[in-house]
Write a structure and sequence with these properties.
It is built from 13 helices and 13 strands. With 369 residues, it is of the alpha/beta class. The longest helix is centred in the middle third of the chain and has 22 residues. It binds 6-O-phosphono-beta-D-fructofuranose.
């Protein structure tokens, strides 16, 4: 039987759902029955630390440790229960314009005899995968990001678990907010996409939701809060996306500089808004940044299931020799789209159909008037 090596890596920010996807890549690739039918014997190679594993296949240290290792079914048996990524991750960009190391990646794929590559990631990781595909690498992608901002798919691994975190944390905040009659501003992640704030706010029943796709007016926020206050509410929850900004203002950055993919570190809009509200309404307002809690914890049932389906489908694409594709969920079906389409443009909230610009919240008519 022909022998082929499948390398698998996870890149960019970690999240829940990565380990289930890796598990099902390995189990599908090594499945005896499928190997017989496909007439190929696969070996699964774990590549540690995202693209860094292919740029520097040995870690620093004495002695250096290989970033490549053989994955077995026994090894990954329990992985779907765990959050994060057991392969490790990094934000290494082999195509960093300041230091292009893409040739090294190609050399290492040859050196370690990796015939096929499965990249699990968001726009950055899959953007690299797309460029490698153009250079002839037999690569397929699996979408993951709590930001849910990849095109060509209705789901990205990690999103649903992150929504659960937002909802649970807001449930906790509600009791203390009510006891003290405080307003709480909860800042979510999401970069330039408002999905986490919008759907997290909807799941938790937030009074106001602010997203990057629609610049908010602080006076309108105060007006809405005073309206609620006059009706006798004891407290309010506002969910704000880290990339949201007031009209005429700009995004708030927590650190100067950019990472190797050119992203700024967003953060601080929640505190800014809480101060503005306290000043204008005189109602005590606190802010909290949920930050990396949204990426942590065990995958919820949906992420385990989607990790499974995406992992299996990625190996199917390899078996069909259908490279340069990303597995995806479309209208309830698992399918595949080109990596080009997936990373071509960000998938953001459509304000016209998915957001209420009067109430600063989710829409209140779904089927139309
Ligand atoms: O893209 C995922 C994400 O969690 C964004 O929502 C957030 O802005 C960013 O990563 C944070 O990255 P880091 O873990 O490098 O701080």
């Amino acid at each position: 039987m022909e022998k082929r090596r499948i390398g698998v890596l996870t890149g960019g920010g970690d999240c829940a759902g990565l380990n289930p996807a890796i598990k099902w890549v390995v189990k599908t690739a090594l499945d005896d029955r499928l190997q017989r039918v496909r007439k190929v014997q696969h070996e699964a190679i774990g590549i540690r630390d995202g693209w860094k594993g292919l740029v520097e296949p040995e870690s620093e240290g004495d002695p250096p440790v290989s970033r490549m290792f053989t994955l077995t079914e026994e090894m990954v048996r329990t992985w779907d229960r765990y959050g994060g990524t057991n392969l490790g991750t990094s934000r290494t960009n082999p195509y960093d314009p300041k230091k292009d190391r893409s040739k090294t990646v190609l050399e290492n794929l040859e050196r370690f005899k990796i015939d096929y590559l499965i990249a699990i990631g968001g726009e950055d990781t899959l953007g690299v995968a797309n460029k490698l595909h153009r250079e002839g690498v037999k690569v397929v992608g699996i979408p993951k990001t709590i930001d849910k901002d990849l095109s060509g798919t209705d789901y990205t691994l990690g999103f649903e678990t992150a929504l659960n975190v937002i909802t649970e944390e807001i449930d906790r905040l509600r009791t203390t907010a009510g006891s003290h009659r405080r307003i709480f501003v909860v800042e979510t992640m999401g970069r330039h996409a408002g999905w986490l704030a919008l759907e997290g706010g909807e799941s938790s029943g937030a009074y106001i939701i602010l997203i990057p796709e629609y610049n908010f007016d602080v006076n309108r926020v105060n007006e809405l809060l005073m309206e609620g206050h006059r009706k006798g509410t004891r407290y309010e929850i506002i969910v704000v996306a880290e990339g949201a900004k007031p009209a005429g203002g700009s995004e708030i950055i927590k650190e100067n500089g950019v990472d190797s993919f050119g992203h700024k570190a967003l953060g601080g809009i929640g505190e800014f808004l809480a101060n503005q509200i306290t000043e204008s309404t005189k109602i005590e307002t606190r802010s909290i940044i949920l930050s990396h809690l949204q990426r942590g914890g065990a995958p919820c049932a949906y992420d385990r299931r989607m990790g499974r389906y995406f992992g299996i489908a990625a190996v199917d694409l390899i078996a069909k020799e259908d490279f340069g594709k990303m597995v995806s969920l479309r209208n309830g079906r698992i399918t595949a789209v080109s990596l080009e389409e997936a990373v071509g443009k960000l998938n953001v909230v459509d304000v016209n159909t998915q957001y209420d610009i009067e109430r600063y919240n989710g829409r209140r008519t779904i089927l139309g008037y």
